[in-house]
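Q: I'm building a small set of examples for a reading group on sequence design. Run inverse folding on the following structure and report the sequence directly after it, with nothing in between.
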């Protein structure tokens, strides 16, 4: 069964296919011939995920998954939060963003560097004149490290330190990350909901 995932981020697509690929053919918006990008006008991760999924579903008539995810840093009043991708500007590299965050937390002790990645995934399912919406949310707790480390992740992964692993989320394998990450856990919940919804149609 084909599902469009509303992203152009190759890192996300790899994670998604690793979890859902046994049951679903996950294609990108580019592969689906969709160039539109939904405007994230919601006030929560869930609202933004639903907005994106519904907009692409209405353009394609296909089942669409979309996620909204971000980094919440307690010392920064949960910034960048829903603005994680747009933090310091859409075109600003994550090297610059990550270094800016490390600078803001310079000298802050570990017990005040608590943070989490949050992910909400929405599925928009066409159903005649109507649509169905499924959602799944999860988080991964950690702290902001003191330096950039690791090449396996993307975005804020190189500064997100996992105390139980003694390394950042960019230093663990994709397989291990999918077991513990916000997106991996949300995808497992969503996979269960999709399998329940579509059953023998897959």
């Amino acid at each position: 069964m084909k599902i469009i995932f509303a992203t152009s981020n190759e890192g996300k697509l790899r994670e998604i296919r690793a979890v859902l690929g046994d049951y679903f053919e996950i294609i990108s918006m580019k592969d689906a011939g969709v160039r539109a990008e939904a405007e994230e006008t919601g006030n929560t991760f869930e609202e933004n995920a639903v907005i994106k999924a519904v907009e692409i579903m209405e353009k394609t008539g296909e089942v669409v998954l979309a996620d909204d995810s971000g980094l919440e840093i307690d010392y920064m009043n949960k910034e960048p939060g829903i603005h994680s991708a747009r933090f310091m500007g859409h075109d600003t590299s994550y090297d610059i963003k990550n270094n800016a965050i490390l600078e803001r937390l310079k000298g802050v002790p570990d017990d005040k560097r608590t943070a989490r990645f949050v992910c909400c995934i929405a599925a928009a399912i066409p159903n005649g004149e109507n649509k169905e919406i499924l959602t799944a949310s999860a988080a991964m707790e950690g702290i902001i490290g003191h330096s950039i480390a690791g090449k396996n992740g993307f975005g804020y992964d190189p500064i997100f330190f996992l105390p139980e692993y003694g390394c950042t989320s960019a230093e663990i394998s994709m397989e291990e990350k999918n077991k513990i990450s916000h997106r991996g856990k949300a995808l497992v919940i969503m996979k269960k909901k999709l399998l329940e919804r579509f059953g023998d149609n897959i």
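The two ends are 5 Å apart (CA to CA).
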